[in-house]
Design goal:
The complex is a heterodimer of chains A (about 325) and B (about 250). Chain A is mainly α and about 325 residues long. Chain A has one domain: Orthogonal Bundle (ABC transporter involved in vitamin B12 uptake, BtuC). Helices cover about 75% and strands about 0% of the residues of chain A. Chain A is built from 14 helices and two strands; from the N terminus they run ααααααβααααβαααα. A two-stranded antiparallel ribbon of chain A has the order 1-2. In chain A, helix 7 packs antiparallel against helix 10. The longest helix of chain A is centred in the C-terminal third of the chain and has 26 residues. With about 250 residues, chain B is an alpha/beta fold. Chain B has nine helices and ten strands. A six-stranded mixed sheet of chain B has the order 6-7-8-3-9-10, with helices on both faces. In chain B, strand 9 and strand 10 form a beta hairpin. Classes of the chains: A mainly alpha (about 325), B alpha/beta (about 250). Chains A and B meet through helix 7, helix 8, helix 9 and helix 10 of A and helix 2 and helix 3 of B. Bound molecules: adenosine-5'-triphosphate and magnesium ion. Magnesium ion binds next to helix 1 of chain B.
Chain lengths: ~325, ~250
């Protein structure tokens, strides 16, 4: 895609996001906010998976840390929501430092297993540390406070939607810039051939740890938006099922494209939403759709669309 | 003058097998040294020891008089030792230009610029294009490395190493699998680069015509041991070498 076309597409998307709250019904808007939050989450996974070639099976841990961090802060101190977002993201990033440092000692499936093990560990902590996390009940009644001290309330659905949409757009642009920076280029080289990378003069591991932490920061941001939006945080938000779904979202949308996973998350959740209203066996159908997509749309939705556009010139 | 590279009693064991056994050699600045020997003689293992991808089980390696035995492969690369691989090793889904550019960037620094860094990228791109031009790959700059024919991928490997402006260049069978025409072209390129950039080169090569034509000196490995070391004329006349390699080649 030419840069010009990409820019036009970006502006159109922003325009659509700006118009949607005026045309959607209240519960539709609330679904949309959900889609955007999980889109942000899936995009963060793409940084390590698509750009660096490290498959994490435990990415939900950082979404969950963001959710708990923001929920606890909002419940106990009622700061403006952006403060809770920052805290949630930083909590996730801070935990990702030791986990990333440790997990990147391994590669491939062993890296995946280590990330999964750490995520399950954190899940257990959330489950058992009742005094802090409320155990299996989680933390309910997380308030949507204000935009800033003395500022407008975010309890209004439109207001919260704007906040989420802004977070997604800014994060997407930041990650896009990251992938084009010298650092991002180095990540791609690691993905392509780590042994060659090392023989060209740098250890791969510091790069992997840094991108792991950055991905956790954005996952934490998504989780930190989730808690006040839904009004709760519970252990499910760091369960391995969500980590697995994130992988499916990335693959559905198009690995290594950033926008792909956002779209993938939206499509994935919409299919789930529609199917689950018809049948309780919806998982069979989402599973089947996923398998068909992997077979017939390699590169995901965005990857396929790009190839199609290139073929047509 | 201190040699650019000096190995002393270098050894590497794989279990009971001594792949490299008590090798001592010195390579002078600006020299083009060929390393020859039958299959499995330990040539690639020797290159791994020099570049730091494998740790020796005994012996020491000095680069420009400085002991580098304890340094990692990335550290040795940054000091000035660049290499190519016998089995082509490039970044397949990156463009030819990006393959070379990242080689420049990784050595030059600024790798942790998370945002922006456009100036850095442009500067490394300029150097990458020079290197591509030197290897005659300029018109393939935008192709994905994986789509290049084998011969061009071999040249791309050399372009990546040369773009790092090393002092010592290790080429592990750069002409492997090439047609006679491509071999001749590659040899010409190596000769030109060696002269223009005053590189010290260590070259593994099976084609004896190429070796005797190109090399200033030749080292012969046999079952991990250095059995001869001398000018092409001396090596040609050496009876041990005749027996071990030239005569008994399969
Ligand atoms: N990682 C390894 N583990 C075990 N044995 C190895 C390993 N690498 C090499 N060897 C053995 O060490 C010996 C030397 O191998 P090496 O690849 O260095 O030979 P070479 O001279 O480069 O051969 P060729 O001309 O076929 O490239 C061989 O017997 C090989 O099987
Ligand atoms: Mg070899």
């Amino acid at each position: 895609m030419t840069p010009r076309r990409a820019r036009v597409l970006g502006l159109v998307t922003i325009a659509v996001l700006a118009v949607l709250p005026w045309v959607l019904a209240r519960h539709q808007l609330s679904i949309l906010v959900d889609l955007l939050i999980f889109g942000l989450f899936a995009m963060s996974l793409d940084l390590i998976m698509g750009y660096t070639g490290m498959v994490s099976f435990g990415h939900a841990a950082y979404f969950g840390l963001g959710a708990y961090g923001s929920a606890l802060l909002l419940i106990h101190f009622q700061p403006p929501v952006p403060v809770a977002l920052l805290a949630g993201a930083l909590l996730a990033g801070a935990v990702a430092v030791p986990v990333g440092w440790f997990s990147t000692r391994a590669t491939g499936i062993y890296f995946a297993m280590l990330t999964l093990a750490f995520a399950q560990l954190l899940y257990t902590v959330a489950y058992k540390w009742r005094d802090l996390t409320g155990g299996s009940d989680g933390i309910a009644g997380v308030p949507k406070t204000t935009l800033f001290w003395g500022g407008p309330s975010l309890a209004d659905p439109h207001a919260f939607y704007w906040l989420v949409a802004a977070c997604l757009v800014v994060s997407l642009r930041a990650c896009r810039a990251l992938t084009r920076s010298p650092f991002g280029r180095a990540l791609e080289a690691i993905r392509e051939n780590e042994r060659r990378f090392v023989s060209l003069g740098r250890d791969a591991r510091p790069f992997k740890v840094v991108v792991f932490v950055i991905a956790a920061l954005f996952a934490g941001l998504a989780g930190a938006l989730f808690a006040p939006f839904r009004g709760f945080a519970s252990p499910e938000v760091m369960f391995w099922v969500l980590s697995g779904q994130a992988l499916m979202m990335v693959i559905t949308g198009g690995i290594g494209t950033l926008v792909g996973p956002v779209i993938g998350a939206m499509v994935f959740l919409l299919i789930q939403e529609v199917l689950s209203s018809y049948t309780e066996h919806w998982m069979i159908f989402t599973g089947a759709i996923f398998v068909l997509m992997v077979i017939f749309l390699p590169g995901g939705l965005v990857g396929t669309a790009r190839r199609w556009m290139e073929a047509r010139g | 003058m201190t040699p650019v590279l000096e190995a002393r009693g270098l050894g590497r064991a794989f279990g009971a097998l001594l792949a490299v056994n008590d090798v001592s050699m010195a390579v002078a600045s600006g020299e083009l040294r060929a390393v020859i020997g039958p299959n499995g003689a330990g040539k690639t293992t020797l290159f791994h020891l020099i570049s730091g991808l494998l740790a020796p089980t005994r012996g020491r390696i000095a680069f420009r008089g400085e002991d580098v035995t304890a340094l990692s492969a990335p550290e040795r690369c940054r000091l000035g030792i660049s290499r190519t691989f016998q089995i082509t090793s490039v970044f397949p889904e990156l463009s030819v230009l990006e393959n070379v550019r990242i080689a420049v960037q990784l050595k030059a620094g600024g790798n942790f610029r998370l945002l922006g860094g456009r100036g850095l990228i442009q500067a490394s791109e300029r150097r990458a294009r020079e290197s591509l031009a030197a290897l005659g790959l300029s018109d393939r700059a935008d192709a994905l490395a994986a789509t290049l024919p084998h011969g061009d991928q071999r040249l791309l490997e050399i372009a990546m190493a040369v773009a790092q402006e090393p002092e010592l260049l290790l080429l592990d069978e750069p002409t492997q699998g090439l047609s006679p025409e491509d071999t001749a072209a590659t040899v010409a390129v190596i000769r030109r680069i060696a002269r223009e950039r005053q590189l010290t080169i260590l070259l593994v090569e099976h084609d004896m015509d190429v070796v005797f034509d190109l090399a200033d000196r030749v080292s012969v490995l046999h079952f991990g041991q250095l059995i001869a070391d001398g000018t092409p004329e001396e090596i040609r006349a050496n009876a041990d070498v005749q027996k071990a390699y030239l005569g008994g080649a399969d």
